[in-house]
Amino acid sequence: MTHLRKMMLDELQRRNYAQSTVVAYISALREFAGYFKRPPDQLGPEHIREFQLHLIRDRKLAVNTVKQRMAAVQFFFIKTLKRAYLQEEFPYPKTPRKLPAVLSLEEVTRLIDSAANLTHRAMLMTLYSTGLRRAELVRLKVSDIDSQRMVIHVHQGKGAKDRDVPLSPKLLETLREYWRRTKPKTYLFPGYGGDVPLTSKAVWHACHNAVERAGIPKKISPHSLRHSYATHLLEAGTDLRTIQLLLGHADIKHTIVYLHLSQRHLHAATNPLDSLPVSDAATVRPSRRNKAK
């Protein structure tokens, strides 16, 4: 391990960054240095701007991927090397605002019923019933299922925060059948080769497989079940503050997006066109030009 890498690792661990973030930041810095074939501490602002253009123009990476790479480079120079760079030295590309894909209740039913096996079914039901992120799902332990209080304990979710989410009786029934068949020891959904957490990629494949089997044309990922959970809660009358707590959002502004997805809220206002005394389309006479044709 190089001295610079150890310095950055120490800074990341001192701030208790998630392991996934640590891996991503170290990888991004390695890529930054490899692009210029020089140690990263010998690079500066002009190299930062050139690297960003390379990611956008040549690599054509997604905006959020570029932002993560830039955040890693910024962390290295400012937090690790203690250089007094201005924020302007780390320009972040503008992120397009896109609404997430949301499944209807009928589509969620088809998705769950299309699971390849009981393990996949239990995972999909857990994602939809709790709104968990993939990383939170794979870290769930058998002991986190509290059937006495009917809650699921989520330990050290995003932002290193604990929270509890309601345990659905229907989900509990499925999890009990799943446990009877598979007998997981520590982790609720263990990975291959022992009592270790399942990989996030395995969860993605389980979801993707079910989407294809269900014939759902939407671009759906495990995170889409989280969006669907929140949207369906809002449509059922749950208030935004409660949804914020259930999802583990630090700021309610991240929860407000579901107002744009909720059918109940979208159709709450009367459309002004419907109040106009316009003629019915069937009664409109064709113009003389149309008659001539």
Class by helix and strand content? mainly alpha
What is the CATH homology-level superfamily of the largest domain? Intergrase catalytic core
Shape: globular
Secondary-structure arrangement, i.e. CATH architecture of the largest domain: Orthogonal Bundle
CATH class placement of the largest domain: Mainly Alpha
Write the CATH fold name of the largest domain: hpI Integrase, Chain A
Mean pLDDT: 89
- CA-atom Rg in angstroms: 25 Å
Helix content: 40-55%
Count the beta strands.
3
Described by strand count, sense and barrel closure, the largest sheet is: 3 strands, antiparallel
- Poorly predicted runs are none
Task: Summarize the helix and strand pattern as letters.
Answer: HHHHHHHEEEHHHHHH
What is the straight-line distance between the termini? 81 Å
Strand content: 5-15%
In a few lines, what is going on in this structure?
The chain has 293 residues and is mainly α.
Q: What features would you highlight for this structure?
A:
hpI Integrase, Chain A; mainly alpha; 293 residues; DNA polymerase, domain 1; 5% strand; 3-stranded antiparallel β-sheet
